[in-house]
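Write out the bound-state structure for nicotinamide-adenine-dinucleotide.
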Amino acid sequence: MRDVTDPDYTVGIVGAGVMGQGIAQVTLAGGMRAIIFDAKDGAAAAGQAEVFKRIDRLVEKDRLSAADADTQKARLSVAASLADFAGCDTVVEAVVEKLEVKRQIFGDLEDIVAENAILATNTSSLPIASIARTCRVPGRVAGMHFFNPVPLMRLVEIIEGPATDPAVAAQLSELGKRMGRTPVSVKDSPGFLVNLGGRAYYTEALRLLDEGVATPSQIDAILTDCCGFRMGPFALMDLTGMDVNYPVSMIVYEGFLNDRRLATTPRHKLLYEAGRLGRKTKAGHFDYDEAGKNVTPSDADYAPSGAPASKVVCAEAPDEPDALFALCQAVGLEILEDDDGTSPIIGYPVGDDATSYALELGIDPKRLVAVDVSADTAKRVTLMTAPGADPAHLDAVAAAIVASGRAVTAIKDSPGFVALRMRAAIANLGCAIAEAGLATPSDIDLALKLGLNYPMGPLEMAGELGLETTLVVMELLQEITGDDRYRPALWLRRRALLGLPIHTPS
Ligand code: NAD
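---
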């Protein structure tokens, strides 16, 4: 294997489409040579022209010198056939997502490149094992999964199939770094790291919708305003498109042999089948105008009627630094020492729904207004009530919060509310990935932050919520819903019980 720092290190790229062009561009930016081939007449030359255009744009923006641009351009060539790849050190395949086509290309390449050249695939969903299986030397086959748009997305997943030589994966990581990317290592598994770890955000939001807990606008508002996500799960599903995220959800779910943790909901399938794909069809979870603006009226903000409450009773004795106590102070709600029998009762159930919480504490469920203080309440506060609750109490508490300049989202009963439940589900899936040894805890965190813009990685999220809290939320979700989907990952359970940091290796 030629050293990856060699000035003449050459990367062959098969497929000059969206991804192939991006991979060529970052290869050149890393000071290497790139050669590009496409089966469609003229496509490789068109890809080369597009890469040249992007390089020119960088010069116009003063982000690249004219001399460096010329050097980069001189290092990109077009192959007339795969035979021109004979001198490549690594070939990255980025053609259509069809196993038979990829197998054919890998078979052809094996007879062309040197014995020690690496063959990598940019597949999003096919097992590396299936592609390597028909190769003469499967040890040199690995995944190198870039994200779109390649020059802007720093992450690259280096995927080791069961037969991949670790030295091959190590060299691909170094190559990724030379391309200016941040590599993470992952074992061959459905969805690899980002598409697997990202499932919880979509599918748990869809579950909340299915349970009638909250609407898409409400769930999105809670996640963006209280939890620091850049986009809510429904807006994100509409952006990526149901034609992408529904099939990926199914590939991951079926790939893990119908593990309930990864199950999506019938509504997801329905939108996909109805062609309500999201922004691209101007209709998905929300409706969009010609300019791509969401035109569905938002019902995220609750508009209370009636006067604000001035006094509340606390379901559990508040402690001075308690987040619920602090919120009451901030919105001017006096906490009564003794129950006056008429004021709203507020409480923060951790993992319980309002129904179970009221019954456990022996308080009147009609007067209970549950307040989610697990997340940031500076902009928005989530309030939850049990079925049959007296709306006057909800209105009175909501009015006091709204008067303080905060928005209120009023949701139906849910174990773990929305903010806590969503983050616990994301954290639990991250822990399950660590438990299965698919990647290191730090790579799991890094991949989801870089690949999906998460405010923190899933394991970091478990740390932020508190391991005990995360475990309790998952246990109660499992108990109350009776759904195995919520079974706590053993990785989480053991570290929570032992009082160890979540990143502690096994
Ligand atoms: P694309 O359709 O833009 O480009 C594919 C190119 O491959 C086309 O130019 C086509 O002519 C060419 N091609 C098809 N068969 C060929 C063959 N036998 N030999 C040579 N060239 C051939 O597709 P894309 O979006 O660039 O995706 C390519 C691969 O990257 C797929 O495996 C996809 O799953 C994966 N991927 C895509 C994205 C994305 O967001 N687009 C992200 C990550 C990974």
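---
The radius of gyration is 26 Å.
The CA atoms of residues 474 and 486 lie 6 Å apart.
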